[in-house]
Amino acid sequence: MDISSYLTPVDVDSLELVESSEDPHLLFNYVQFYDGTDFDWEKMQIAIVGVPESRGAFNNMDTRLAPDEIRKQLYRLYRWKPDVEIIDLGNVIVGNTVEDTYEVVSELMALLINENIIPIILGGGNDLAYANYLAYDKLQQFVSIVNIDSRFDLGMEEEPLRSNAYLNKIILRQPNFLLNCSNIGYQTYMNSPESIDMMDKLFFEAYRVGNARQDLPDMEPVIRNADMLSIDIGCVRHPDAPGNPNASANGFYGEEICQLVQYAGLNDKLTSFGIYEYDPMLDYNGQTAMLISHMVWYFVEGYLKRQDDLTFKDKNNYTRITQSLTETLEPLVFYCSKKTSRWWVEVPIINCEKQTQQTYFLPCSIKDYKMAEEDVVPERWWKAFNKFNQQKSI
Hints:
The longest helix is centred in the first third of the chain and has 17 residues, at about 100-115. By secondary structure, the chain is α/β, with parallel strands linked by helices. It has two domains: about 5-305, Ureohydrolase domain (Arginase, Chain A, 3-Layer(aba) Sandwich), CATH 3.40.800.10; about 315-390, no CATH class. The strands form two sheets. Strands 1, 2, 3, 4, 5, 6, 7, 8, 9 and 10 form a ten-stranded mixed beta sheet that branches. A four-stranded antiparallel beta sheet has the order 11-12-13-14. The two termini are about 35 Å apart. The chain has helices at about 65-75, 100-115, 130-140, 165-170, 195-200, 210-215, 220-225, 255-265, 285-305, 365-375, 380-390; strands spanning about 5-10, 30-35, 45-50, 85-90, 120-125, 145-150, 180-185, 205-210, 230, 270-275, 320-325, 330-335, 345-350, 355-365. It is about 30% helix and about 20% strand. It is built from eleven helices and 14 strands.
């Protein structure tokens, strides 16, 4: 794929950083800017990609202006102490139709993921998460998605694909490579009872914003299970992020969303990340763009602290603990990393026809282990077990 025909390089003069552009420690002088010529793919670790596409954005057409406004704030920040190779590929050239844009985005994301480069997508509407998912479809890779959003954006089967109705299109797509989907931060009064019931029926994890804020570290295992993270900036309370027409007075605080994004950076499994639904025309003094730039910064900081404790290649690096429970036929088997103190629990995947059993290592927390000690089956284990071992229908 010749990416030069799909991208417009960043106009660095438009970033308005002349007064401080000489400082070698600023990201402006640290990140490589794609200029339309070849670059060394093997050196790159992270790629920033703007997608100024808003035709699928519900009640938020000016989100097409977001990528460059975010860059103006991002490149004023200082670099990280460890070195990391980042390239800003510029903005995707939107297609004649929104479907054309989805195709280009999915092709580009698939290329980056296949090259072990993590794309950070600056949208654009939240429907671009669908295009991001299509990249895994093209690669024929199973994917677990985490959405940080005040709404599920499920939509109905007959509805057109748009930012508030895209998740159902992923669930129904065939062949289907969706392994799991979790929501963090939904607000009950913004979601119909039917959509809440549907998430439960599909055994998808969903955490109300109040519960998530009450125990933010308990969201780390949820995010650690993600291959792909999607954030609707409307999940942040309006006073902290005014640049979104669908934002609520309630939601995450700025520092909380940065903490969640840092968890994503730490996740060895995560291979793509997108932030959507920012409208610069509604922003006050660049406040939302500033927050999003901080989110990107914290994601990279987390990435630089990855510990590679996901593969279970060497069982000596983990403490294995077996816990018997009244409600399960077999004991639950927990693992705790000696390197990071992070936890996992085995979930059996049973194939009755072939009379075989596989094991899925589900990220969990010490709180889940403590529940098992008290003879209580952790809810996230139940959901995973049911999802993998029962036939689901919508």
